[in-house]
Permease
Amino acid sequence: MQRKLELDHSPALSVPLRFFVSAPLFALAAAGLLLWAGPDTLASRWSPAALALTHLCALGMLATTMVGAMIQIMSVAAGIRIAAPVASATAIHACLTLGTLLLAAAFACAAPVLFAPAALLLGAAFAWFLLVCAIGFARERRRMPAGAAAVLRTMRLAWLALAATVALGASLGFALGGHLPVFSVELVDLHAAWGLAGWVGLLTIGISYQLIPMFQATEPYPRAVARGLGPGVFAALVAASAVTFGPAGRAGFAADAIRLALYVLYAAFAAWTFHLLRTRKRPEADTTTLFWRTATASVAGAGALWIANAGMGGRDIAVTTGVLLMMGGAWSAINGMLYKIIPFLLWYHAQKSSETAIPGMPKVKEMLPEHVARPQFFAHVAALLLLVAASVAPAPFARPAAVVLGVSAGWLALNMLGAWRRYARVRRRVASVLHLRA
């Protein structure tokens, strides 16, 4: 069963929109960094430029969008409003943006002095976000709207995963700044797992339960999938934490088994999502469908690559799997969702601005037309393929990948700007009609 949206609970347009608009701008910054640093960025996951690029993507592109999406979806899908939405969004966005830029600069410029302020700003942003979400969850703890159980349950798990990610990330940030003696490779890996598989992955799953059937005209996810997938992922991450902080012994074998379990769980989610998209009621694939197909193929490809490499004992594939999971899986899904969420929000708030019908009010699809969105998808795929190639052979492909990534990100930003201009024209028309009627 899919829950009907409570659009009257939607926060002000500026609350989620500021987070969505920031994502392509951070993608442009990531492209600029890759163009400036060149092949060294993708030669190793531990190079300063690689760490800067990773956090521009993880925090600026992925987490920023996810914060805005969670605020919006909590409100309309589960009826949970965060405390002081406009003030909270302003403070969270400001701290998150500045903290991300400082952290990227700390890595790229090898400036340890920047790690502590970056950790403080990011910690403040996420602590505020976690707090207002916790208040919302507490207010509605006894309320489980029909059809929202799977969405809300998975969002709560994503909230817990974010708390773990922030705690580990802040500790590592202060350690890199020389304030805490806790740095280790195992903690870095655990931080990445909670952030990507936990926070981003679980929230993507939870949002998908609502948005895939709603916007893609598919059947709902099976009840067994909706009930078991999120808790399964969370349990695997808890097990990974126990292995990391437990005695050494057979930790290597246990870590590999847990990683395999996570890949299997996400491969199952990708496969079922692909099946829903393939059997959807609308036979022709729109741009968002293509982005989701790319995301599911990337996640499945990353899992297959890791399993094959583990079996053969081959080269280090951390950069390649990272590209497939972050840029191919998470960013493809987010990019596609933005093409549904933004036009819908702009259309809804345009409609809401008028209490009566206004002649010539555009439809949702007209806020960001299909023929405008689709070319950017092909630019995104080209950037993804070049990034994968650059992860294998950085010298010839790193800078071309940066250029195409910049083109794709800029294209997305321009498309979003075009949608905003259409919304602004509608608002002016509404104001004019209401003035004449008065």
Remarks:
- Residues 23 and 61 are 4 Å apart (CA to CA).
- The chain has one domain: 7-437.
- The chain has a mean pLDDT of 88.
